[in-house]
Amino acid sequence: MEKVTTFLKHSWEEVQHNVTWPKFSDLQASSSLVLIASLIFALLVGMIDYVFENALNFFYRSF
Fold first, then answer.
1. Rounded to an integer, what distance in angstroms lies between the CA atom of residue 36 and that of residue 18?
2. Phi and psi (nearest 5°) for 22?
3. Which residue windows are coiled coil (predicted)?
4. How far apart are CA 15 and CA 20, in angstroms?
């Protein structure tokens, strides 16, 4: 149990003193970029799915 306690104490000290935390404005900018990229990717995948679905339906109806 002592090893776990020591590990947790050292981890907490590391987080408090050695980790460089980004500014809130940087986090907002990064989050906005990820949101926009995710939406674009979702729309692209949706369009590809729509095209393939219609193409396959057309192909199956032709037989």
1. 32
2. -70, 155
3. none
4. 9
